[in-house]
Amino acid sequence: MEFGILFTSHPNPKEEPYPHRDVHARTTDEILEAERLGYDTAWIAEHHFATSYGIMPDCFAYMAYLSAKTSRINIGAAVITLPLYDPIRVVENTSFVDILSNGRIRLGVGSGYRPYEFEGLGKDFEGRRDMVEEAIGLMFDAWHRHRWDHKGKYFSGTVAEPYEMLPHPLQMPHPPLYMAGGTDRSIGYSGRNGFGLMLSTLPGVETLAAQTALYKRELSLASAERAKNPAAGNIDIARWVYIADSDAQARADTEEAIVRHIAHFGGSGTSGYLGSVSEKGNQLSYDDLQGTTLLHGSAETVIARLREMQARTGMTSLLLHYPPYYGREKTMKSLKLFAERVIPAFRPPARRVAAAE
Q1: CA 141, CA 144: separation in Å to the nearest integer?
Q2: Using CA atoms, how far apart are residues 40 and 65, in angstroms rounded to an integer?
Q3: Distance CA 164, CA 247 (A)
Q4: Model pLDDT, residue 352
Q5: Which of 54, 141, 282, 317 is placed for a possible disulfide with 148 were both Cys, Cβ 3.0 to 4.6 Å?
Q6: What is the pLDDT of residue 349?
Q7: What are the residues facing 157 on neighbouring strands?
Q8: Per-residue pLDDT for 31 more than 80?
Q9: Residues in a beta bridge with 295
């Protein structure tokens, strides 16, 4: 199993009085530390206009910056809201950043779930899923054939000889592609089209098991071309993670912070995508969360729960998510403890040696 970290660039007002600068400096420091500790991928979340959530508006700009700051860790978008983009520019930018990173880019796409982002950018929220499916077809044409003649409901354009889509990425035919799944429609579509699947922090194991089973069934229907995606069959599941010397210490360190984060993460801006958990976010207790979405506790506790989750879902990667309210010191300590005490239980000896070098 691989281990990535999901970064939302979410300000912590207590530590970042000027968050438009400090939050990104803190996120970059955490990514550099994750690379040093041997994590596999740094995943970057993109959001717009939120006053109490992520404030990183451009995955491609940040991935290009991180490409110059790092040398080993993979860098991924988790995710770009595809209906807010021109799909050909997504192909061009992804390919270019893949070159800048020497082939370390992963691209996650999603339909979006925050209506105010669409309103602010003048896009149709209700038509977003149809827009994604049309955009995906055009993107595959650009990556596999390098030319296209497309006249659709939402997008149109033609590139014919002697012109073509340039530059080509280092990872051919394209970097690993993932799709965020929260509904049967998006999960089924991701499988049938050979995408890797990314699942939210909030569903419990029972829900995750049903979602991954649907994905695996639909993946068997993917065409040979779509199945060339390097991420086809990958299942990445996000969890809020915190490691301490004991379960009691983990709770003492994080209880107030995680409940506060859930209250901001959920609410009306996310209803319908994250399900009933988001809709009652202000009423959830630490015990409610520990039974569903948290991997908090001693290394032994977290290893046992992660093994159960892996057995139930077939997950191939864990995406660790650290809410900003934990504070920098606690986050860095947990990153280190997880790398030292948990990852070795899931990584063969050869991988452990390589990560330590």
Answers
A1: 5
A2: 18
A3: 56
A4: 52
A5: 141
A6: 72
A7: 150
A8: yes
A9: 241
Direct distance between the N- and C-terminal alpha carbons of the chain, in angstroms, rounded to an integer: 19
Is the confidence at residue 271, as pLDDT, over 50?
Answer: no
Q: Residue 257: inside a domain, yes or no?
A: yes
Where does residue 167 rank: exposed (0-12), middle (13-18), buried (19+ CB within 10 A)?
exposed
Q: What is the distance between the alpha carbons of residues 344 and 75, in angstroms, rounded to a whole number? A: 22
Q: What percent of the chain has pLDDT over 90?
A: 78
Q: Give the span between the Cα atoms of 63 and 100, in whole angstroms.
A: 9
Average pLDDT in the 97-106 region?
99
Whether residue 216 is contained in a domain is answered as yes
Residue 288 lies in a domain: no
pLDDT at 323: 86
Which pairs with CB-CB distance under 8 Å and at least 24 residues apart come from 341-344? Answer: 341/243, 341/299, 342/243, 342/299, 342/302, 342/303, 342/306, 343/3, 343/38
Q: What is the CATH number of the domain that holds 348?
A: 3.20.20.30
How many structural domains does the chain have?
1
C-alpha to C-alpha distance for 343 and 3, rounded to whole angstroms: 8
